[in-house]
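User: Continuing from earlier, I have the next pair ready.

Assistant: Great, send them over.

User: Here they are, in order.

Assistant: Folding the first of the pair now:
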Amino acid sequence: MGSKNKLKRFKENETFGNVFQPTREEVVSGAFPLKGRWNADFFKNENPLILELGCGKGEYSVGLAEKYPDRNFVGIDIKGARFWRGAKTAVEDGMHNVAFVRTQIELIDHVFGENEVDEIWITFPDPQIKYKRTKHRMTNSEFLQLYNKILKPDGIMNLKTDSEFMHGYTLGVLHGEGHEVLYANHNVYNNHGAPEEVTGIQTFYEKQYLEIDKAITYIRFKIK
């Protein structure tokens, strides 16, 4: 994407009522006003709150929001030019149950309050295969404890990925630490019984993977 195009998208993001782009300082200092108040001050209802981490173009957040109008969705990504697409679609379609925040995943406990979130989706994260250290892997122990801070006690986690490596790595972490695996499948499109929101919503890249018969894996779990 050209820098001109990116700038245009950044500018347009600023006009969207469903996009929040706080500075790192604002987030870390505790000045982000919606922390702990997403439903009260933004969505203005008591519906379940669901996050998509590393939401990319926001296709999954928007797809889920369309499917479940009685739930609230927030897509998180550090690249605002990416989720511009999802934000724009939501604005054009008059959707009031989806928003986007431009921030780092490591800071989500500064953006959401303790026990504020009902469910988290991680869709097609970078598996970080090349790195011996696992610190950037989005399902490592540190990240799981971070998610646990903002999840309700019975909150649900979802991991959907095209990476067999990430699928296996995550199952290893979950079983090793005694977390509760509710459902795991290394090829959701070839098996009956996969939840409808897993196979019913497809991202741009997911469609490409399916065209070349690349298996899509999925894990649904609870953090202990």
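And the other member of the pair:
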Amino acid sequence: MSESVSPPQRLPSWLKSPIGRARDLAPVQRLIKQAGIYTICEEGRCPNRGECYSQGTATFLLMGPICTRACGFCQVDKGHAPRPVDDHEPVKVAQTVQTLGLRYVVLTSVARDDLPDQGVGHFIATMTAIRHLNPNTAIEVLTPDFRGDQHLISQIVQAWPACFNHNLETVKRLQGPVRRGAKYERSLEVLATVKHLNPQIPTKSGLMLGLGETQAEILETLKDLRAVDCNRLTLGQYLAPSLSHLPVVKYWHPDEFKALGQTAKAMGFSQVRSGPLVRSSYHASQVEES
């Protein structure tokens, strides 16, 4: 694999994938709209959402569709005055999980730096509501950094999710333009804190490739994740949501993703998903070795 990055180019053939069958998408989209809740599958236009829905998996976006941070890669709307938290959302999500018969749920959220607890209480309330109506449904969390507050992180850990996911998103050098308001070291500390508090909870992180990182920087990032005993990893291709977002610097080839995935497995990650269309929650429920 080359260390150099390539100039922008037309969308490669391997990224021209159908978004999913209408029969898998339409019922879920209709129910979500009727319930007045959000999924990152829809808000982020995930290319895998039809596949995930058909397999009984979905990723819910908690606390509204407006984020208090303005990351350069993200399609979610930004604003300094998000909507008030919907106290009924936990029950709405739990009822939707029950109606759809979901076996594995990922809970994520916008950053809510405006809230005293940054939304931790809402995460826990939603987990509680889901478990009340769906005792056999596993729950993974994909959280913001909570500004590194160990007390807040500990509350999520005490709720015992099936997996604690927090994404680094990119290599250390590119954190500033890509993750505005976040810090590389702080995100590593979030993952380290989870392991310190409960070593039995699997931790997970993900990177988007194509923002200008080199292979050497990727490998250094993977070493940093293993140093805090991160167990699971996702590697996917960054796709610019619009011209106002950060541009794609390089489209990594599927063979490069495959080689990086093999390297990650050799480094000790127990679960690796590596491919152009892989996203944070892709095949999240499949915990077998890969």
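Worth noting for the second one:
The chain has ten helices and ten strands. Strands lie at 38-39, 57-62, 66-67, 77-78, 104-109, 138-142, 163-165, 203-209, 232-237, 271-274.
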